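TASK: fixed-backbone design
INPUT:
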């Protein structure tokens, strides 16, 4: 009997050991100096070859270049473990004229990265932290401030962004993968986008902390491209660029991870996240666009951001069935070459690619949203693409003054468009909409907090519209603009107003 128990324990131990692959057993050294790319790759290959298991990174700092993840591999970082990107660009696998990042998986299934260790992209090695990346003067000629747009008084970095050097691309890439999980991990200092899911199905990101250098350009948090059935939840993402981006690429991109994507992005749930971004907290759509649909965003905080939620069509494909509820948004103006200009909510459909028919935005619902922002809510459709069926319900909006009004305020930012004017001077109503059909504004409570600039105008302004409904609006036009009214409507038809007593309405060319 004792012999049987001994044999059983020996067999159990052998199986358990066979399923766990400690990188130090494959020659890795956690001394913060040794390049461990080959050692980690050997551990991953062995794990995959034997049917799968866990590759463990123990306490220490392990430097790597590009490592390829494979089927059924669970990469686990123990508490105190640091998996750090090499500062040498040549240690990363080349792709055309650029380089992959730290971890790459393609055509793989059942991959997990977890643990309470740190993945450090070593991004500081790939930026000039002493110089700001500036907007070209030509790009500011139509702004209110012209060459002084977003200028930093006295020079210096201001809000950045800093100047990028030659750098590896996405820190983690999953291309055409199924059943991918990232859980609990702490990810820092990416040199480019942090995490890309391209053509993936069945993605779970749960409980991660992802902190980039907030002054780093292109330092996105999570990018979801042409993927489906994605859950991002319980996470803290602080990104120099978009914290979360959801797109549906349709054209071929000559950068890692994009290999002729053709699929829509659909069935995306984002919940219980704290987000910060010097661009958009959450961005949906943009250029080279296929359809994005069925997105639910709930119970999130978007703070210290330049844009809150941005929904953009600049190309073909539609953005549809987007539901956003229970979100707190705080946005502000910034110096430097960041896209966005303090809008808590930005929805726009303007031509960016003249070679295709412009796509559409429809069926977008905002409910139970609290905003505190230094610019207004923007819904900017165009003759080429009228924005359809947008609802705002139970919105509390405080439009506040900004110390940067003189250098950045009073402008609309439509960059990514192919029109001559992409960044231009414009009056700022609290909520401005144009070229819309089926717009509903219900239970909007608006307050102006210390605003002093004359370019702040009406409470709600809608132009070139059909079928709009405004109910129970509590607010006014700008208190410092004598010409401002509470509600201004121009060039439209089918208006249904159910307003509180005392609300002033001005109409021009309305049927």
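OUTPUT:
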């Amino acid at each position: 009997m004792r012999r049987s128990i001994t044999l059983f324990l020996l067999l159990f131990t052998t199986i358990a050991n066979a399923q766990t692959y400690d990188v130090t057993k494959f020659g890795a050294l956690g001394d913060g100096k040794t390049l461990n790319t080959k050692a980690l790759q050997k551990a991953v290959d062995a794990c995959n070859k034997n049917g799968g298991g866990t590759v463990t990174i123990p306490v220490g700092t392990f430097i790597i270049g590009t490592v390829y993840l494979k089927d059924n591999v669970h990469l686990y970082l123990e508490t105190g473990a640091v998996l750090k990107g090499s500062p040498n660009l040549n240690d990363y696998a080349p792709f055309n004229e650029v380089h992959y990042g730290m971890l790459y998986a393609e055509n793989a299934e059942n991959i997990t990265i977890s643990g309470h260790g740190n993945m450090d992209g070593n991004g500081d090695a790939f930026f000039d932290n002493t110089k700001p990346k500036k907007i070209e003067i030509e790009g500011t000629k139509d702004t209110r401030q012209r060459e002084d747009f977003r200028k930093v008084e006295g020079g210096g970095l201001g809000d950045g962004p800093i100047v990028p050097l030659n750098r590896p691309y996405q820190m983690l890439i999953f291309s055409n993968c199924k059943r991918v999980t990232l859980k609990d991990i702490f990810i820092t200092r990416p040199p480019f986008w942090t995490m890309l899911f391209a053509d993936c199905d069945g993605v779970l990101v749960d409980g991660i902390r992802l902190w980039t250098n907030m002054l780093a350009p292109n330092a996105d948090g999570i990018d979801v491209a042409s993927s489906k059935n994605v859950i991002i939840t319980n996470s803290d993402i602080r990104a120099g660029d978009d914290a979360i981006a959801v797109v549906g690429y349709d054209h071929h991109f000559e950068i890692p991870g994009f290999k002729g994507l053709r699929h829509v992005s659909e069935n995306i749930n984002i919940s219980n996240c704290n987000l910060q971004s010097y661009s958009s907290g959450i961005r949906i759509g943009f250029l080279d666009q296929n359809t994005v649909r069925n997105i639910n965003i709930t119970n999130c905080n978007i703070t210290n951001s330049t844009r809150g939620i941005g929904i953009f069509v600049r190309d073909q494909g539609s953005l549809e069935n987007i539901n956003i509820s229970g979100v707190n948004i705080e946005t502000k103006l910034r110096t430097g070459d960041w896209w966005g200009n303090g809008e808590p909510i930005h929805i726009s459909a303007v031509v960016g690619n003249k070679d295709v028919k412009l796509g559409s935005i429809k069926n977008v619902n905002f409910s139970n949203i609290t905003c505190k922002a230094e610019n207004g809510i923007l819904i900017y459709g165009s003759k080429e693409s009228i924005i359809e069926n947008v609802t705002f319900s139970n919105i509390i909006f405080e439009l506040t003054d900004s110390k940067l009004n003189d250098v950045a305020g009073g402008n609309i930012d439509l960059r990514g468009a192919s029109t001559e004017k992409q960044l231009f001077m414009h009056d700022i109503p609290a909520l401005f909409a144009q070229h819309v059909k089926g717009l509903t504004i219900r239970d909007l409570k608006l307050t102006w907090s210390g605003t002093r600039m004359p370019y702040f105008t009406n409470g709600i302004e809608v132009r070139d519209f059909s079928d709009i409904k405004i109910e129970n609006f509590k607010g006014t036009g700008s208190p410092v603009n004598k010409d401002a009214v509470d509600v201004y409507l121009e060039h439209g038809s089918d208006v249904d107003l159910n307003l509180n007593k005392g609300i002033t309405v001005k109409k021009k060319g309305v049927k």
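COMMENT: The two ends are 93 Å apart (CA to CA).
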